[in-house]
Amino acid sequence: MVAEKIVEPIQFKFERPSKTYTLEDYMRKEAQSVHKHEFINGKITRMPNESSSHNIIASNMMIQMGMAFEIMEKDYTIFNSDQKVYFPNLDEGVYADALAVSQKPIYWDKSQLLLTNPILVVEVLSKRTEKYDKNGKFDKYKTLESFQEYILIRQDMCYAEVWFRPKQGVWHETIIRDLDAQMVLKSVDVSISMRRIYKNIQL
Predict the structure, then answer these.
(1) Taking Cα atoms as reference points, which of 54, 202, 193 lies closest to residue 122?
(2) Quick check: pTM over 0.85?
(3) Could you tell me how far CA 190 lies from the centroid of its own chain?
(4) Which residues, 6+ apart, have CB-to-CB distance to 29 below 8 Å?
(5) Which of 50, 55, 161, 175 could disulfide-link 152, Cβ–Cβ 3.0 to 4.6 Å?
(6) How far apart are CA 52 and CA 48, in angstroms?
(7) Count of CB atoms within 10 A of residue 84's CB?
């Protein structure tokens, strides 16, 4: 008895090339969308929904920076997570969880939607975004001449990384794990209590 071997015909799958967009396409679509998206390498990527802890920490950080600037009479403007940051050298745009601008904001567009001169940026880490925030996104912010300080805050434990640029191309890292410590922001010359940053957060 001869066993017959049935050979299935090979099926080739042809993948369509993913569509790329211009900055103008992105801005037009973003204006009509109920969700926020980032514009990276010609692709439009929806941002994930964040937890309440993430949002509380970002809000606390903004409140504490605002109070510190007011007390010290510092001339800085604070923006929340709705502000787009644009990287002219990359032709890309992202959102930060909070950021500060020294004196006058500078925009890429006449509509004043694409900010280009943050001095300080805050990102609250999540499992989904931590790797991107620490590496890829940090590298994007570094392309901005104004950018001097990057704050990464975990939401599941008392932990913050503060990266400060004392001069071009040199970054110093400070890690804070003590709830009773002060977070020193050298770019804006203020200090913020870690306990205040984690106010109303169960650690």
Answers:
(1) 54
(2) yes
(3) 21
(4) 21, 37, 44
(5) 161
(6) 13
(7) 23
Structure tokens at 159: 């932990």
- A 10 A CB-CB count for 124 gives 29
196 burial type by CB count under 10 A (0-12 exposed, 13-18 middle, 19+ buried): middle
Query: Which two tokens mark 106?
Result: 């500078």
pLDDT value of residue 15: 53
Task: Tell the residue number behind the tokens 């570094």, with chain if given.
Answer: 142
Burial class of residue 115 in the structure, from the number of CB atoms within 10 Å of its CB (0-12 exposed, 13-18 middle, 19+ buried): buried
Token output for 129: 């975004």
Structure-token pair, residue 151: 């704050």
pLDDT greater than 90 at residue 34 = no
Amino acid 29 reads K
CA separation for the pair 91, 32 (Å, rounded): 21
pLDDT band at 61 (very low <50, low <70, confident <90, very high): very high
Query: How far, in Å, CA of 172 to CA of 166, rounded?
Result: 8
- Facing residues of 46 across strands? 37
Decide: 114 and 108 in contact? Cβ < 8 Å.
Answer: yes
Nearest to 120 by CA among 103, 94, 95, 102: 102
